[in-house]
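Reopening this one. Same input as before:
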Amino acid sequence: MTAVASDAAPSGLPPSRALFALLSALAAIGSVSTNIILPSFPAIATELGVPVPRLGLTLSVFFAVFAIGQLFVGPLSDRYGRRGLVLGGLLAFCAGSALCALATDFATLVTGRAIQGLGACAASVLARAIARDLFEGETLARVMAMVVVAMAAAPGFSPLIGSLAQASFGWRTTFVAVGVLGLGLAAWYALRLQETHPASRRTPLAIGTVFATYGALLADLRFLRPAIVVSCVTGGLFGFFTAAPNVLIAGIGLSGTGLAWLFAGTVPVVFASGLLVPRVSRRWGGQRVLQAGMALALAGGLLVGMVSVLDPRGLAPFTAALCVFLFGMGMANPLGTALALGPFGARAGAASAMLGFMQMSGAALGAAFVTGLTGAAPMTTLALVLVGSQIVAIGAFVLLRPGRPAADPA
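Same output, byte for byte:
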C-alpha cells in the first residue's frame, strides 16, 4: 500500500475511501471505547465489588483526560508533526486497554481508563487536524462530514457489540477488543499515511505561545461561532446518551438489549445526514445548510417535548422525534467543524484541540444537565436539554457575526 505524504498546501484531489475510513476510525475510537463497556457495568461491579453507580467514574475520568489532553496534543502536533503523536497515542490506548482487561480492583480499572482517554484524545483530535492538512473548502467539508458521522455513529453500534461480547466471553473481552482495534489502527495509519504536517508549516512551541494561540482562537469569531454550534449539538447528543436508560428502559419499558438495538437503529439516520451534507452544501452553501441543521435539531427537541406530554410511553413517536434531532445534528456537526477549522491551516492542531475541548465540555454539560435536572420526567428533562442546547447554538450563530479578517497563513 502506498503511503500518502503531504509536503505542500492542502490538495484539491478527492480523498480515497480508504483515507475516509482511516480518519473516521481514528476519530471514533474514543466513542467506541466508552459506549462499548456500558452493557458490562453490572458484571464489572459484581466482580470488582463496587456499586454500579460508582462505575460512572470510569466515564468521567476518561472524558476529563480526553478533554484536557487535547489542549496539549494539538500544539505539540503543530510543532512536531502529527505522525508520532498519533502512533504514540494509539499505543498508549492499547496499554490502557490491556490494564483495564487485567484489572483486579477498581483503582486499576480507573487508571487504565485514564490512559485510554489520553491515547484516544491524540487519535481523535489529530484526525481532524490531518484532514485540515490534506484538504480545504468543499472537500474538507465532505471529509469532516464522514469523520463526524463516524464519531456520532460509533456510540450507536458499540453498545450492541459490547452486549454480545459480554454475554459470550465476559466483560474483559470488551477491553481486549478495543485494544486490538487500537493496535490495528496504529498499523493501518503507519502504512497508509506519512507525515501530513511538514517542517515548513510548523509553529514554535512555548507555554506563552500556546495560551496566546488558544486565546486568539477564542477571540476569533470565525472559530468561536461554529465551535459553539458544534459544542451545543454534541451536548444534546450526549444528553440523549445519558438520559436513554431512564427514558427507554425505566420510562418506556425496553430491555437492555432493546436499548442497544435502538441505538444501532439510529445510526443510518446519522449516516444519511452526513452523506447529504456535501451535496446540499454545494447547492446552497455551508452556512445555510448549517442553519437548516440547527433548525432541525431544535425541531427534534421540541418534538421530544411534545411526546413527553402527549405519549410519554410511546416508543414510536419518541424514536421519530429523536431521529429528527439526530438528522439535524448530523448536518450541523460536520459543517460547524469544517467552518471552525477552515481558516486556520498553520494552527490546525491547536484549532482542532480547542474545538475538541469545547465539544467534550459540551458533552459533559449535556450529561450533567440531564443528571442534575430533577423533579421532571426523564423524557421532559431530555427535551429541555435538547431545546436549550439548540437555542444557545442558534443564538451564538445569529449574534456572533465575524468580519472579514485575513485568512490564517497556510
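So the earlier flakiness isn't reproducible anymore. For the record, The two ends are 29 Å apart (CA to CA).
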